[in-house]
Write a structure and sequence with these properties.
Elements: H1 2-7, H2 12-17, E1 19-24, E2 27-32, H3 35-42, H4 45-56, E3 61-66, H5 84-95
Parallel strand pairs: 2-3
Antiparallel strand pairs: 1-2
Length: 96
C-alpha cells in the first residue's frame, strides 16, 4: 500500500478501504466497499500489480470485487462486529 501511495497519493483513501478477498494461484481479488472506489483502483491496476509483484517477488494479477450491500451474517455470536456502534454494544454485552 505505501509503495502505491508513494507514487499516487490520491489513492490513499480507496486503498484504506481495500480488503484481501481471495488469492487463487496468481490472481489476487481485492474487495472494495463500493463501485466508485473499485473503479478508481481499476484505473491504476498496472501500478497496483507492479507494487504487489515488487513485494511478493512474483507477477500477480489483480481483480476487484465490490462488496454486496446486504449485511453479512456473523458465523458465531462471539465474533465481534465491524461497525463501531455494534462493536460498542458487543463489548458492553461481553463485559456484563
Amino acid at each position: 500500500r505505501t509503495r502505491i501511495e508513494g507514487e499516487r497519493m490520491p489513492l490513499q483513501a480507496p486503498l484504506s478501504h481495500a480488503m484481501l478477498d481471495a488469492l487463487d494461484v496468481y490472481i489476487l481479488t481485492i474487495r472494495m466497499p463500493n463501485a466508485i472506489e473499485a473503479d478508481i483502483l481499476k484505473d491504476q491496476q498496472a501500478l497496483i500489480e507492479r507494487a504487489i509483484a515488487d513485494v511478493v517477488g512474483e507477477a500477480v494479477r489483480v481483480k476487484f470485487r465490490v462488496e454486496s450491500s446486504a449485511p453479512r451474517a456473523r458465523a458465531a455470536s462471539n465474533v465481534p462486529p465491524e461497525d463501531p456502534a455494534d462493536l460498542l454494544q458487543y463489548a458492553s454485552e461481553r463485559i456484563r
